[in-house]
Amino acid sequence: MIAPGARIHATALVEDGVAIGEGTSVWDSVHIRGPGTTIGEDCIIGEKTYVAYGVAIADRVKINAFVYICTGVTIEDGVMISAGTTFTNDRYPRATTPDLTKLRPSDPDEHTLPTIVRAGTTIGARATIGPGIELGRFSMVGMAAAVTRSVPDFHLVVGHPARTVAAVCRCGEPFLRAVDGLLPDTNDVECGTCGLRYGVTDNRVVEL
């Protein structure tokens, strides 16, 4: 299940039932749980990161140190997850049954909500991603943001709770400022850094 070209640090714990692709590096004290976790090719899993069972990570994903990825998370190609990011999967968690006599099981149930991080997204250091969230393609989450609702493609969000402050290019540079969390409509706007062009209608960013 682990490709011959994958590099696994001697202190990393990789459980049975985990698939890791060619060229991926797993650094010190990482814990990857199985079964059912898949990690693609040419990824980096930074030191002391935890990846739960059933997580799907695609190719060329860069995960920095001290990241917590819970069950129900899917990460597409080319995503960057900065140090200290935490994912969650339950809106109303409890440790025990209502009468406090039994610990609730940690297995997924009807309250476990999936989260998907679309291709090209960047998540800033120490951000917290709420359950049932979709982070759109090439979106960007500011450091220490608390994301409580889904983020559209090419939106830059910051704050507590996170809200849109700008549109952000594939290259990572903001190119259009938001007003009160909404992007102004425009037929054609150019990224001043790389020259890629975009249109915006009803807060939706499309590539031209």
Walk me through the structure.
- With 208 residues, this protein is mainly β.
- It has a single domain, classed as UDP N-Acetylglucosamine Acyltransferase, domain 1.
- Helix content is 0%, strand content 35%.
- It is built from no helices and 26 strands.
- A hairpin with a 6-residue loop joins strand 24 and strand 25.
- The model has no long low-confidence stretch (mean pLDDT 97).
Task: Sum up the structure in keywords.
26 strands; 0% helix; single chain; UDP N-Acetylglucosamine Acyltransferase, domain 1; mainly beta; 208 residues; globular
Low-confidence stretches: none
* Quaternary class: single chain
C-alpha geometry: globular
Mean pLDDT: 97
Order of helices and strands: EEEEEEEEEEEEEEEEEEEEEEEEEE
Q: Which second-level CATH architecture applies? A: 3 Solenoid
Number of strands: 26
How many structural domains in the coordinates? 1
Largest sheet: 10 strands, mixed
Label the structural class. mainly beta
CATH class: Mainly Beta
CATH topology: UDP N-Acetylglucosamine Acyltransferase, domain 1
Which sequence of strands runs across the widest sheet? Answer: 1-4-7-10-13-16-19-21-22-23
Helicity, as a percent range: under 10%
